[in-house]
Request: fold
Amino acid sequence: MSVAPPRIRLGILGMGSVAQAVHLPLLARRADLFEVAAICDVAESVVHAMGDRHGIARERRFTDYDAMLAAGGIDAVLLLQRGSHARTVLAAWDHGLAVLSEKPLAYTTAEIDDLAACQPDLGHPAILVGYMKQYDSAVEAAVEVVAEVDDVRSVEVTVLHPPGGTQLEFVHVVGPAGPLPADATGAFDAEDVRLRVMALGDVDDDLWRAYRGSLVHSLAHDLSVMRSLGTIPASVEHADIWRQSSAHQIRPTGRDTGSFGLVPPSISATGALEAGGRFRLAWHYLPDFPAYRETVRLIHGAGTVELVFPSPYLMHAPTELTVSSLDGDAERRVLRRSGSEAFERQLEAFAAMIHDGVPPRSGLDGGRADVRDCQRIIAAYAQRRGIAVGGEVGALVSASAEVTA
Reply:
């Protein structure tokens, strides 16, 4: 008779929306795999609210991440805080802990290169980068279909993003009871400026927010799906960013202003795929759009493969996979809808990584590839518009200019 492996004692950093809407409820249901052994957030009132809700002992509630790590009693960490996770990954590794890092892993390739140089030997992979869509059963089924295709002509991605507040109304997210500690907000702001300069140079807030919020935080998920499908971008040949508003807007942008800007953007990009064919990406923030909608559509010589994702916060809402193919002289369309929860399957994969050494679907290499593709989009836009950029994106612009000179 096999013996179940011990539960993984998990420390969680970040008690915001995704923790409250997704991870804490799922972990409560998956007590067979995990024990929430410690929680941490800079907002003390939120830590205690979540600690009371989920039965976390008061001595295992922290407002300082390093203090949580030093207290011990955990086997792994789940990183859900805002901003780059690179520093907090390194701190966890210093304590010999495995990491599940939800996005963003980092904003620069330099941060990820530093992580690669410090990745510890834990006897199993040290990090799973949290692109839950890669664990969606509909995506897995699409991967099997596309594996039989040798002539992908085009991949088309469209994200229609309504305000985050409308997607989270059902959660009743508990926010801070008062202002956050000045030292914590000051440190975050300073780090944000430092990483902006590293990534883009001395650019305005709108370009930084388009890169940080729309691309690295959101569209990177679709880049990870493209990687799963084997449709890897080889180049970005054209990109545009624009901002439009309407006098008839009903819903306020609200807290999304901090992520996307006062008037959140639309972004488009096109380019070539490594194996041939083209891709087209479109990301639109739409204040009054009725519901979040995300589509990945692959076109090949014998049909199409289309994935339609619901809001990520709606657990067990089905992702739809539609496969179109030839059936005699007619079209055959097969629709697959599964309510299996991608976030839960990602947690299962994290447990399998720790207990059995199963490689994650995205590690540092995958995370780095997605950051670089986001930078390529900004570089193509900046080069076309004559916008001065520096940092890693500026280096891409310079390299492109040398090739075309």
User: Anything to note?
Assistant: Residues 119 and 126 are 7 Å apart (CA to CA). DSSP finds 13 helices and 14 strands in the chain. The chain has two domains: 8-130, 134-404.
